[in-house]
Amino acid sequence: MRPYFEPLEKKAVELGAAKAKLIETGQIVFDPRSFLKCRFGCNRWGKFWTCPPNMSISRELFMEAFARYRWGLVIQTTTPKGGQSVALAVEKEAMLSFNCSYPLALVLCVECDECAFPNPCNFPHLARPSMDAYGMDIGKTIEPLGFKVEFDKDGKLLPAWYGMVLLD
Ligand code: SF4
């Protein structure tokens, strides 16, 4: 069955995404090992309001809310700034044109060069948690959709950034 939200794939590309694809939330992969990778090796740990362990909403509460969503729109962009702006625009579009009550963007927050943490967030209306902040395995989730996490020969991630908008 073709989902009601399918036009949002095209809309995301019009808004600046390189690609966008719908996924059923049942196909989204979670792996608690992602928390180890956040804690050990990521320079955003503890420095951003939108990254572990500072999100304020527990993983249990997030998963309770996540269970109410049926679709996610995976968005690929070539820059993190682009990712944040497209994901937020799609979130708004889902609410205004698709009668979606609680669309939620999951995308790396890069709004400020330096996060205001621990002072209050500068732009709380723009800040969202990233896909992996609550344990999502981004690589395993996007691979069946034809997306690939790719690295150059020095092991550096090639410039493809991923965000998602959860749709109810
Ligand atoms: S909007 Fe700025 S202050 Fe708020 S979480 Fe994002 S980077 Fe931090």
Main attributes of the structure:
168 residues, alpha+beta, four-stranded antiparallel sheet, 4 strands, 14% strand, binds iron/sulfur cluster
The quaternary state of the protein chains shown equals: single chain
How large a portion of the residues is in β-strands, by DSSP E? Answer: 5-15%
Our Rg estimate from Cα atoms comes to 15 Å
Compute the average pLDDT.
Answer: 94
Number of structurally distinct domains: 1
Return residue spans where pLDDT drops below 50 for at least 5 consecutive residues: none
Tell me the span between the first and last alpha carbons: 16 Å
Bound molecules: iron/sulfur cluster
| Class by SSE composition | alpha+beta
Note down, in words, how this protein is organized.
With 168 residues, the chain is of the alpha+beta class. The protein has one domain. It is 27% helix and 14% strand. It has helices at residues 7-14, 33-39, 59-66, 80-97, 138-142, and strands at residues 19-24, 71-77, 104-106, 161-167. It has a four-stranded antiparallel beta sheet with strand order 1-2-4-3, with helices on one face. The two termini are 16 Å apart. The structure holds iron/sulfur cluster. Iron/sulfur cluster is lined by residues 48-50, 109, 111-112, 115-117, 121-123, 126-127. Iron/sulfur cluster binds at residues 48-50, 109, 111-112, 115-117, 121-123, 126-127.
